[in-house]
Amino acid sequence: MKTLINLYILLIGVFLYTLAKEKFHDKVVGLENLIGFRILSLGDINSDKSLDIILLNNAQKKVELGVWDIETKQFTIIKNKMNVARDKIILNIISMDFNFDGKLDILIFYGNSNDKDKVDKLIEIDLFLGDGTGKFEPDPISLPPAIHILPFVADLNGDMKPDLVGYSSELNKNDKSTPTIWVNNMRPIGSEDTKEPKPFKLTPFKSKNPKDKVCKLHPFHSNSFIDFNGDCTPDIFFTCESEKDKNLKAFQIWTNTNTENEFELKVSQELPKGAKAISFGDINGKGSADMAFTTCDDKEGCTIHIVYNQQQELCKTAQSTNCRWASKLCEPDDSFKFDFNENSAGYVKINVKSMVEKSNQKKLEGFHWVLDEDVNFKGDHLPIPLRLGDFNLDGYPDILLTLTNQKQDKFYHMILSNAPCSLDSCTEGSTNNGQRTFQYTLDNQLPSVFPESKMESIFFDIGDRGKFDILQIPLDSGSYILSWHVEELNDAFFLKTLISNGVCLQNCPDNTNNNNNVKPYGVNYAGGTIKYIVSDTEGNERCSMISQMGQTSNHALLTPYNLVGLGRTNNYLSTLTVGVSKIQKQRHFTWSGIIPNSQLIIIPYQPEGSSDPASWTREMLINPSKHAKWVFGSLLASLIVLGSIVLTLYCIEKKHDEKERLLESKDQYEPY
């Protein structure tokens, strides 16, 4: 019997090892026959809580909608009647709820391929309203055109509607000293209130201090709407043209003052020479937005820069000072800073050439560059940022990138794992300050299906499993969109969140005759902030921060949900605080006792006239572990084995008792 038990344990172990060995599996998701298309935007088109995709062909003139089918677990291309302009090229698509009816709309930015070398190229903007079922109005609403740069989304007047920020052809044709805000005055279709004739009103960006001026915005920008000072409300990040050298970049951070269209300049700094697109995320897990970007050199290849947002951290003991208490996670720290001094405790550099040479992988020889722009994109070269996502659910974001050689004719896609700093990889100051870096591991390299095809990769939770998979998007016409299903065995937990725009509490009322009453899942709200405290298995608390859709320009391709790992924990989340851009005295609310491995939908709904976030609600959807069926199978097999053992022992015992009774009976009737 002991031999049978050992054999059973061995078989289970072999099965689990085999399951864990293969990390990446190609998965059919219905896009294999769609050659010559790229994903341009992500959103829930039909309000079913599943993420859909908006695609653009390589000619940049045709838009397709891919809706996720929960039953077939594939994308289905649906017909759309949008009258997209055919005489122009599409530069960008932003999908959000612009008319505040709880349904996803599509905003398209057009350009002219002949304007590539023009400084003030005209950017036309069309808005197609959606009905929440996958259908869009055929005729668009035209917005005032932009010039010079692609506008980005930010809610600057605090009404939870997406505004646009950039340069307008009307206000900035001869003066770029102040950016323009396209203030969103739209209302749901059929609304009785029609006092505002213009759906978008142009107004200059407003500074709290008139002496502070906005820099000249760089056309290849990473402009963002993210919380930088820790108060759980989004601030503005501008990418600037350097005043010292037009070939260099700088940046400004303007903090939110909780006043309509008014921000305060807090940081103005130069970026390193050659800085590319900037990505933001809580890289060291200390509760603030850090930045990551690349610089490249023809001789030394590319270098990844991690610049940490140095501000107050979570208090560790009752005697701690100059820190944030758990009850005051959203207390602002306006002394926050980004230090670009290479010897500082908040700066980490990773040279790709050195990383490749240390890997001892012959196939990576010469792959010292990062694919950081798409030179085939019409209109302008398209920046490709580093993609941040918690791939292994350890609580720290990893980097998804594409390595290439100097000729850019071969490519390798891989994930760099987030790891603690050591003296071998970071400076002494960064190591002693508990900062983190990124490292290459062989098993985190994706299979090469089209090694000579230029593709970019993004994180995507396929099928809502609570784990990041990977989509590879072709940047030329020689391949189709690839999908990689990730299978990695670990015992880490996750948290998936989605913040709505608070337009309604349950089914949003439909003022049209279509009766499309849907829940506000497909709104793609930009500017939400989440801070949460989680304990590891040793009881150490950590505060982390998430920003929702803080970047929208230049194909940021951020998901409208936030998927983060919690690492190994044996407890609930101590607290979870949600902040939004709404202008009122209290702009955040805290919940406690959040269950790990759950999907949390936050609806910051407030009745008309209310300024109290106590009416905000949360929907919690519990996800069973992806290994639940195997655990159940193992449990069932264990019960069968144990039941067999008990039954066998019972039969043996019964036979033994029967034998004893026979012997006793024989002794009783045996004659003397």
Kindly describe this structure:
The chain is mostly beta strands. The protein has 3 domains: 2-498, Methylamine Dehydrogenase, Chain H (7 Propeller), CATH 2.130.10; 499-628, no CATH class; 636-672. It contains 4 helices and 42 strands. The strands form 11 sheets. A 5-stranded mixed beta sheet has the order 14-18-17-16-15, with no helix packed on it. The chain is globular and about 120 Å long. The two termini are 44 Å apart.
Percent range for β-strand residues: 35-45%
Helix percent band: 10-25%
The first-level CATH class of the largest domain is given as: Mainly Beta
Gyration radius (Cα, Å) is 28 Å
User: What topology, given as strand order, has the largest sheet?
Assistant: 14-18-17-16-15
Low-pLDDT regions: 1-21
CATH fold type of the largest domain: Methylamine Dehydrogenase, Chain H
The dominant shape is globular
Overall average residue pLDDT: 87
List the domain count as a whole number.
3
- Give the name of the CATH architecture of the largest domain: 7 Propeller
The N- and C-terminal alpha carbons lie at a distance of 44 Å
Enumerate how many helices there are, as a single number. Answer: 4
Family: Belongs to the TIP family.
Keywords: Glycoprotein, Membrane, Signal, Transmembrane, Transmembrane helix
Protein name: T-cell immunomodulatory protein TIP C2 domain-containing protein
Membrane topology: Single-pass type I membrane protein
